[in-house]
Amino acid sequence: MSDTAATALLDRRGKYNRSVSHVNDEFHTFRSYLRWMCVDQSNAFTAALSWSVFLLLAVVVPAASHFLLACPDCDGHHSRPYDGVVQVSLTTVAALSFLCLAGFVRKYGLRRFLFFDKLCDESETVRTNYMAQLNRSLKILSVFVGPCFVVECAYKIWWYASGASQIPFLGNVYVSDAVACILELCSWLYRITVIFLVCVLFRLICHLQILRLRDFAGFFHVDSDVASVMSEHLRIRRHLRIISHRFRAFILLALVLVTGSQFASLLVTTKHSGSMNLYMAGELALCSVTLLSALCILLRSATKITHKAQAITGLAAKWHVCATLDSFDGVLTDGETPMAPQSSHETVFPNVGTDGESDAGDEEDEIDTTKFIPSYAYSTISYQKRQALVNYFENNRAGITVYGFMLDRSTLHTIFGIQLSLVLWLLGKTIGSF
């Protein structure tokens, strides 16, 4: 091995070791959080503990709460006619999230699952922003879990304190109510945390790809060769396929389960003969908001990265046009006066009007903007190569897919149209029968 190759290998290995060391320091808090949540299955003991906690808080406690504390003889404020739908909905989605998370961590490991083993090949900007996003993930998780848990705490404490349950299974009514209330709250907190945790991790992984796409867009603003652009885009497409393959079953099953939960909620509320009030249907509404929020995190993250990936096609087409215009500057055509040669390699294009707006602000796409791309020695890339690259982007659109279906905005519109049709049909069957 030559000295130059050995030096390059050592530099690469040193860069990788710095990344690994930094990641391990940051992962200490995250791994501790997974252990406290009892979803870490790194060895036999933690796996047994994880499954035991899951069966207790996600299956046994909700089932006991529903069958022992259903309170069919309570008044209108304390009866829980929709508790079955609430418990089944939360348990099924939490079971799906738990199985997927445990399988991902056990099969790939946390670092490989979150693509931290690939950070050594990324730029410093991507690594820094991704580490910052990792640190924000637990805060984002608490933003979604905290309000839902506070509302559930207020409802459960009121329900038990007002004397709805009088089952002294521990010998004393007050001790029994306190234990039952704590177990129900722990079960609720555990299930919604597991649900949101998988969604937030998916959002984190998608954010890494968005950072890479922003970094990739810089290739079109400097003098880059087609081979390097093609190679980087193929690498991004490969990672997007990996993400799609890992999460396709989870996204599809989550969509089916949440949709089924909403239809079941609609069915039981329209069929219920009693009066509807906040005390009876408040927990059902909170469950629906929780599940829909988790589903929105999944779909928004997937459609956002698909939109950013497809914006590269427009950026490449604009780059091709600007380079073509630059290559024809100064060319003599029939009936035209010869133009003076350019004194600089950079062509300055006119500014695009804003139609009376001073600044586009957040309305401007951060990858495919409405600004011209200045040309930097684009004569080194032929027209045929640029055209071939644009054709490649047009026929190889990247994004998150679910069994071949691209999760973009048109797909969301289709899903919304199908669900709206089903809702109207269900309402016609239930309300029309009264």
UniProtKB/TrEMBL annotation:
Disordered: annotated span: 339-364
Keywords, sorted A to Z: Membrane, Transmembrane, Transmembrane helix
UniProt cross-references to InterPro entries, sorted A to Z: DUF3537
Superkingdom to which the source organism belongs: Eukaryota
Transmembrane regions: 44-64, 84-105, 140-161, 188-206, 247-266, 278-299
PANTHER family per UniProt: OS06G0635200 PROTEIN, RAS GUANINE NUCLEOTIDE EXCHANGE FACTOR K
Protein name (database record): Extracellular ligand-gated ion channel
Gene source species: Phaseolus vulgaris (Kidney bean)
Phylogenetic placement of the source organism: Eukaryota, Viridiplantae, Streptophyta, Embryophyta, Tracheophyta
